[in-house]
TrEMBL record:
This is Riboflavin transporter. It comes from Takifugu rubripes. It is a multi-pass membrane protein. Plasma membrane transporter mediating the uptake by cells of the water soluble vitamin B2/riboflavin that plays a key role in biochemical oxidation-reduction reactions of the carbohydrate, lipid, and amino acid metabolism. InterPro entries: Riboflavin_transptr (IPR009357). Belongs to the riboflavin transporter family. One of its GO terms (molecular function) is riboflavin transmembrane transporter activity. The lineage of its organism: Eukaryota, Metazoa, Chordata, Craniata, Vertebrata. One of its GO terms (cellular component) is plasma membrane. Its main location: membrane. It holds the Pfam family SLC52_ribofla_tr. It is found in: Cell membrane. The chain crosses the membrane at residues 42-62, 74-94, 106-129, 141-161, 194-217, 276-296, 316-336, 343-366, 378-404, 411-440. Residues 244-270 are annotated as: Disordered.
Length: 452
């Protein structure tokens, strides 16, 4: 295998969700400067779900016009759109427009919607494109996809996003105040080491790197030697094109070994899905697990991460977020060397990861006074739980990707569609719980007192 191809596949995967992930980690610096304030995360959730119009279009095209749509022009378009949108965001994110008598961050919301379209559509285009390469490179792609969350988080950590300093409330006003200290503390967010504009320029540069990696994956001679036969998607071609490709394939002089009747019966397709390796029931199980795992990892648990971690301190929150992001590519590397395709093992890992997620959800519901909040062991447990949660379910996602990759091009298209569907259902379910019903409560980082 080519190390260059592995490197390019990783960089290509990093461009899949880097823009939206970057937007989320930068929120603590963005929201104080815009009129929407902390309602922006709710708006972003809605915009991301509206952006699923992109994956819907791609999936319907593959369903009703198989073989007509080539992913490569679509990828060039969406990555180029991502470069332009993040570049414009660096200069216009603070601009406001009067709408209905109120100031609104129209440029920020519009560009965020375009970035959501880019990232959501990558789920149903990047994965099928990876079918052109050997199976080993798909795991590397998933590692890059994991890094699309880790890299912006590390840059934001260096930037100093969300670092809080508790200061006596009587000292935050006029310096010459003579008010007696009543013990009240006020949370002061430390200034960032570099601006939001520079951060968005960094995201634009990341999208440029993704585009360059994609160009090289298409045209570099070293990658061409690793590429599979162009008939990789012959199963999705229109009938007349498929017949032509099969006739060309039949002209090769290679002889096929004779297959005994017993082996022929054993190799009969078990369902009409993909190559028929799995029965209809097993295919349904795989897709249900895929939707469930992505709902938890992409929407349900991220929406309560701050509630589950911040009661244990700002360091616990940043450590959990960073180490969980590291766990994603680690799971991909484990899957690269130990790809266990057993559906029973997949179900066991899914139940285990769901158990870790249940603990995280319980701590978020108990916020601002979760279990062991005054103990160092409580911090260690919540950080470790986040790591194991992401590690176990990320492994499941990669294994499902490997399984569906072997089932053919259309299977990976449906894989991306189910990923988006699961994420959408999770986001829609959590949005009212977090935004309207007030089930989860955040405490004051400096003044919340919990019973010992």
């Amino acid at each position: 295998m080519s190390l260059l191809t592995h490197f390019l596949a990783c960089l290509f995967g990093m461009g899949s969700w880097v823009a939206i992930n970057g937007m989320w980690v930068e929120l603590p610096l963005v929201v104080p400067e815009i009129p929407e304030g902390w309602f922006l995360p709710s708006y972003l959730t809605v915009l991301i779900q509206m952006a699923n119009i992109g994956p819907l279009f791609i999936t319907l095209m593959h369903r009703f016009r198989p073989g007509v749509l080539d992913e490569r022009p679509v990828i060039y378009f969406i990555v180029g759109l991502g470069i332009v949108a993040t570049f414009l965001l660096a200069f216009f994110w603070q601009h406001t427009v009067t709408v209905g008598g109120s100031l609104r961050s129209v440029p920020l919301l519009l560009l965020s919607f375009l970035l959501s379209v880019v990232d959501c559509t990558s789920s149903v285009t990047f994965l099928p494109f990876m079918m052109r390469l050997r199976p080993q490179y798909l795991t590397t792609y998933f590692a890059g996809e994991g890094l699309s969350g880790l890299v912006p988080a590390l840059v934001a950590l260096i930037q100093g996003v969300g670092v809080v300093h508790c200061q006596n409330a009587t000292l935050t006003g006029a310096a010459n105040t003579s008010t007696v200290d009543d013990g009240k503390l006020e949370a002061i967010y430390q200034p960032a080491k570099f601006s939001v504009q520079i951060f968005f320029m960094f995201l634009s540069a990341m999208m440029v790197v993704c585009l360059v990696a994609f160009i090289l994956l298409n045209h570099h001679p070293a990658v061409a030697r690793e590429r599979k036969n162009d008939l990789y998607f012959s199963g999705d071609l229109a009938p007349e094109k498929r017949d032509q490709s099969l006739s060309l394939h039949a002209q090769t002089p290679e002889q096929k070994p004779m297959i005994s009747p017993l082996e022929s019966t054993r190799n009969e397709p078990r369902s009409s899905f993909g190559r028929g390796t799995y029965s209809t029931l097993e295919v349904g199980f795989i897709f249900i697990v895929l939707a469930w795992v992505n709902a938890l990892t992409n929407a349900v648990l991220p929406s309560v991460q701050s509630y589950s971690c911040l009661p244990y301190g700002n360091k616990a929150y940043h450590l959990a977020a960073t180490m969980a992001a590291v766990a994603n590519p680690v799971a991909c590397f484990i899957a690269m060397f130990m790809p266990v395709r057993s559906l029973i093992f997949m179900g066991f890992l899914t139940l285990t990861g769901t158990g870790f997620g249940a603990y995280i959800m319980a701590m978020a519901a108990l916020s601002p006074c979760p279990l062991l909040v005054h103990s160092g062991s409580g911090t260690a447990v919540i950080v470790l739980t986040w790591i194991l949660f992401v590690l176990s379910l990320s492994y499941v996602k990669v294994i499902i990707g490997i399984i569906l990759r072997d089932e053919g091009h259309s299977a990976l298209v449906w894989c991306g569609a189910v990923v988006q569907l699961g994420s959408m259902v999770g986001a829609v379910a959590m949005f009212p719980l977090v935004s309207f019903y007030g089930i989860f409560k955040s405490g004051d980082p400096c003044n919340t007192k919990c019973p010992m």
